[in-house]
Amino acid sequence: MDNIFELFFSELNHSRICYAIVGRTEEYPLNIDSDIDIIIQKNQFSDFWIFIKSLEKKGLTLIQVLAHETTARYCILMLSNGTKHQMLIPDVCSDYYRHGSFFLSASFLLQNRILDAKGFYILYPDKEFIYYLIKKIDKGFINDVQFNHLLKQWKLDSSGCFSVLKEYFDSLSQTQIVNAFESEQLQVLDQHLHDLKISLHKHINYNTFDIVSRVSNRFKRILYPTGLVIAFMGPDGAGKTTVINQVKTDLGGAFRQIRQFHLFPKDSDHSVPVSNPHDQKPRGTFGSIAKLCYFVGLYLLGFITKIFPLKLRSTFVVFDRYFQDIYADPLRYRYASGILWLKIAGLFIPKPDMWIFLEAPAEVIQNRKSEVSRDETERQLLAYRNLCSSLKNAYLINADQAPEKVVYDTEKAIIDHMKERIKSVTKIIN
Predict the structure, then answer these.
(1) Tens digits of residue pLDDT in 386-417
(2) pTM value > 0.85
(3) Same structural domain for residues 275 and 332?
């Protein structure tokens, strides 16, 4: 399988886009533990999206774009070969903004960029130094590894690094920074971080356009939330827990955070689960309808207060079972009032973005878990299959395969769904 990093930058080098990777690249491409920060010229974002589109011919698929700044886009690319998915996360920006404040222009940063021996462009030492230093000072934190990266740039061009300091810091701050790198001591810089941040922001220009652009960016995030809500469905023994855990590990990097819920959109109450729910006596008609009303209220409140805010914050929201599970397995929920009331209640239940149904032959399910009879397992499998066919954005996955193949097929369904979604929300990347 092609290495997604090498393929991406080989194609980027042959494009018309002037770019450079910023930050620590010493371990690239063997070890990439997070996103890859890339600077491009301010007027080349349109070219960049054309370039991203062209990568589809090479098998690279864009599945996610997070507009975290007015001039920055956090992109998720996937490369698949039938057995494995590779992910690459280029965080692309032009002029460097942070929290809506302008710090550095792309045209300045890209001056004298250098072609690294490993096949990608990096910034010239003084540009890398001021970019990385400003980023760490504004965050108010720097560790040994980050300090050593800055020290490396300082040693490569100390006079150039000192010259750019004058544009962003007063004389006292300049002296403190120089002393830290001349003495090669992190603590000298660390003890002045708070004052250096104050000095930095005195030299930052704020304007109405930046404020308006930031508000517009936040409004787009409300209209086009970049989180994803998935409900995993299927009988006990279908392998939901195993698949969910691996999917969260493999695809979690496409989101800012991960949250998992069991059946309801509420935090776990740590109650002891019922070991064999089918042994319990069903509720009467009134009790069943009352329970449905409770479920509707719980889902509506949960989506308003938890799930939608999580989607706005680009969260991967995973449900292990969902309300519609009652349709396929009413005895589990002690429900005994017929399908009509279920359908009425279902009209008021907010739906996830997509559904994953796991199924396997009844004998496979029985070998894994045999808490119910073979006939009941077959009835549930048919009910889940019918439910899957009735829902929008529902995918049926064969769970009677090698575990890695089940995970691959599940992830492919999610990737394909996200690929189609990104096509319909192109406004977030314009």
Answers:
(1) 999 999 999 999 999 999 999 999 999 999 99
(2) yes
(3) yes
